[in-house]
């Protein structure tokens, strides 16, 4: 018999997603990806909100239908409160509130960054506490010390751009459509990571900086294109591999420092960029070399999804941590 059944909504950026979780087991994870942003080279907030408005009910309907659970069996409804795009968040929050009000069930707010990390608890193997999680997405780059499901501390992070942003912005300079991260990954597979040398910015302590590489690639391409207008086309794989090499190196240098500093042997990665095959491979080798226990989520749970929101909501439900009906979204929200 199922006791705790939660419907979870994710709408922080450009994916509209819904999932149902029953007693800690995720039953499904429906995601509608918004393609309207491709031609703009980045997420257009106004268009994202409208697409959420369009997609949310059909996505929820599908989640409820495929879970085999009826609406009146739901114990609670969860949503992403932040961080994210205000207009996008508002759609999810308003829906969740109305749903909770209509069904007279508790409302659970979830922190999106917390949820990215809790994606590790959807399936086995699960990391043991305490562990260090490198959360890498389009909006964030964080080193997080995770003491318990709901007890996390950000111990390092970026001072400027997120690493996903660096992937996407350099991809744009190469003429690739948004989001460029997965495309850099794809072309990098055929390229030489040492063909070109892009900067590896070294920041103090556990700080990251990813804005320098964008400028370096911009100037490098400008110079090369003067001599050869086909430079990008002729060197695309090597360019992608070299950019990816620098970004992955920067990520891992600080991860090593954090592991040493906190004496933790359990290491996880989370967020959209953890889908990157260069990062996965290099980190897997590094972990084997260092004797770390490494946890990498399934692709499906790396990028934005409601299954991770559902997982976080489950732990909050167990603690009776519910939100009041006057809760509002937060574009910026600390873990
Ligand atoms: O976590 P996520 O889906 O959304 C945010 O919360 O930001 O992350 C999206 C980011 C984008 O910057 C996208 O380019 C990047 O993750 N990304 C990748 C790959 N797949 C997604 N970056 C590099 N390689 C990939 N395979
Ligand atoms: Zn995310």
Automatic annotation (TrEMBL):
Biological process terms in GO annotation: tRNA threonylcarbamoyladenosine modification
Cofactor binding description: Binds 1 Fe(2+) ion per subunit.
Residue numbers binding substrate: 135-139, 168, 181, 185, 276
Keyword Cytoplasm: yes
Main location (coarse class): cytoplasm
Protein keywords: Acyltransferase, Cytoplasm, Iron, Metal-binding, Transferase, tRNA processing
GO cellular component term of the entry, any: cytoplasm
Subcellular location: Cytoplasm
Ranges where the Gcp-like domain occurs: 25-310
HAMAP family found in the cross-reference section: TsaD (MF_01445)
Function: Required for the formation of a threonylcarbamoyl group on adenosine at position 37 (t(6)A37) in tRNAs that read codons beginning with adenine. Is involved in the transfer of the threonylcarbamoyl moiety of threonylcarbamoyl-AMP (TC-AMP) to the N6 group of A37, together with TsaE and TsaB. TsaD likely plays a direct catalytic role in this reaction.
Entry protein name: tRNA N6-adenosine threonylcarbamoyltransferase
Highest classification ranks of the organism: Bacteria, Pseudomonadati, Bacteroidota, Cytophagia, Cytophagales
